[in-house]
């Protein structure tokens, strides 16, 4: 039987650089409703290029939501767990939007280009939800919440040669400002003839930039960066290497380390929850989820996010059970959230939620890898830090502590 007007699964969305990826021979994959490049050459080659030189990433699937108006700072203090009114103009902050029960709806980076102007960057899979929540939480505030995702392209250059590459196509009058840009800061500049917001942020553990550009200027910007960077070792990088890079850097991925059942405290990210933020009159900000998160801050954790160093050759993967010892696969004490071989370190690494009593660094456990116990050791996160002397490129690292502590 056929039904007139019936439809199959919705088509995958494509970004402004889709044809560029096809022309480069990328293997495409569905991701959060988008068709995205998984790899262009090999996962290892792309990962290694970012650590040794630079990689070029298309992040145009991310959501960009503008919050403007006289009450923008106060509204975001109410809507998010962070203290956004304390962010200086030109700076950015990693934060989260939580439900009333403290569960993480998404982790975000929020930029403050102007006094009454914020740009909220959400994960692609949660962009619609974040937009709806910000609109709802903005009721009663003098703000405008605008979805700019469709008209915004986002590309990133990450790696030790990122500064050299980006400034080589930056307008001469902007080169000094871009070169001196602090980590988690952004500014307006002209790059490859395109007006962009250049932010010194990223998701790889390396130095680098993310460039927010008009969608209709994405192609010339991409091509200019690729041409300028190729002689210096830059390559386009897909989702696979992006995941192994962020895993080595100990950075959480929504849907793995973070989800609706997880609070920031569970993930070792207590520092992003500002229970101490106050309004100008000195009264505490009653932000969404505050009561639940305040209670969670005082409670003993039921599980702790830790790093695991593989002592064998087979890598643990998302969802694999963590067991107390190789001799008893039934004695489950946790679950892997992310895992892969580490191209940089030469051994498997993983992040996992485990019971507090086995969370201490140095504890030897095992992971059930398809019925076979693979030995692992609990280690500090992140697994990888780039060489001393390079600018900081990650928020304060996750720490596998057995009890929650409030940090910055």
TrEMBL record:
Residue positions binding substrate: 210
Gene3D superfamilies per UniProt: Aminomethyltransferase beta-barrel domains, Aminomethyltransferase fragment, Probable tRNA modification gtpase trme, domain 1
EC class: transferase
InterPro entries xref list: GcvT, GcvT/YgfZ/DmdA, GcvT/YgfZ_C, GcvT_bac, GcvT_C, GCVT_N, TrmE/GcvT-like
GO molecular function list: aminomethyltransferase activity; methyltransferase activity; transaminase activity
Record-annotated Aminomethyltransferase C-terminal domain positions: 303-384
UniProt entry keywords in alphabetical sequence: Aminotransferase, Methyltransferase, Transferase
GO BP annotations, alphabetical order: glycine decarboxylation via glycine cleavage system; methylation
Pfam families: GCV_T, GCV_T_C
GCVT N-terminal domain segment(s): 17-277
Coiled-coil regions listed in the entry: none
GO cellular component: cytosol; glycine cleavage complex
UniProt family annotation: Belongs to the GcvT family.
Name of the protein described by the UniProt record: Aminomethyltransferase
Organism phylogeny: Bacteria, Bacillati, Actinomycetota, Actinomycetes, Micrococcales
Name of encoding gene: gcvT
């Amino acid at each position: 039987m056929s039904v007139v007007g019936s439809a199959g699964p919705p088509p995958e969305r494509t970004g402004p650089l889709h044809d560029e990826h096809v022309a480069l021979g990328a293997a495409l994959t569905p991701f959060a409703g988008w068709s995205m490049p998984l790899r262009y050459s090999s996962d290892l080659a792309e990962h290694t290029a970012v650590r040794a030189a630079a990689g070029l990433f298309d992040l145009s699937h991310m959501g960009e939501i503008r919050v403007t108006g006289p009450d923008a700072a106060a509204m975001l203090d109410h809507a998010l767990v962070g203290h956004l009114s304390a962010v200086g103009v030109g700076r950015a902050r990693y934060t989260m939007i939580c439900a009333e029960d403290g569960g993480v709806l998404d982790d975000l980076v929020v930029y403050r280009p102007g006094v009454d102007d914020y740009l909220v960057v959400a994960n692609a899979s949660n962009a619609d939800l974040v937009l709806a929540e910000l609109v709802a939480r903005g009721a009663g505030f003098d703000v405008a919440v605008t979805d700019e995702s469709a008209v915004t392209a986002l590309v990133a250059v990450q790696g030790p040669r990122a500064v050299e590459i980006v400034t080589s196509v930056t307008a001469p009058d902007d080169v000094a400002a871009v070169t001196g840009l602090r980590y988690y800061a952004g500014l307006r500049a002209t790059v490859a003839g395109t007006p962009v917001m250049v932010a010194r942020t990223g998701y790889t553990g390396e130095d680098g930039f993310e460039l927010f550009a008009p969608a209709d200027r994405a192609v010339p910007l991409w091509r200019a960066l690729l041409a300028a960077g190729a002689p210096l070792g830059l390559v386009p990088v897909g989702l696979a290497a992006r995941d192994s890079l962020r895993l080595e850097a100990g950075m959480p991925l929504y849907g793995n380390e973070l989800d609706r059942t997880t609070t920031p405290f569970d993930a070792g990210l207590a520092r992003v929850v500002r229970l101490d933020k106050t309004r100008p009159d000195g009264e505490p900000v009653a932000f969404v989820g505050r009561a639940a998160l305040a209670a969670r801050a005082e409670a003993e954790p039921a599980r702790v996010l830790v790093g695991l160093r593989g002592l064998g050759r087979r890598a643990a993967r998302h969802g694999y059970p963590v067991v107390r010892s190789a001799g008893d696969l039934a004695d489950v004490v946790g679950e892997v959230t992310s895992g892969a071989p580490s191209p940089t370190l030469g051994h498997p690494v993983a992040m996992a939620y485990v019971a507090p009593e086995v969370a201490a660094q140095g504890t030897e456990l095992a992971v059930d890898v398809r019925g076979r116990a693979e030995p692992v050791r609990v280690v500090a996160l992140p697994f990888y830090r780039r060489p001393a002397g390079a600018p900081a490129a990650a928020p304060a690292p996750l720490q596998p502590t057995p009890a929650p502590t409030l940090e910055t």
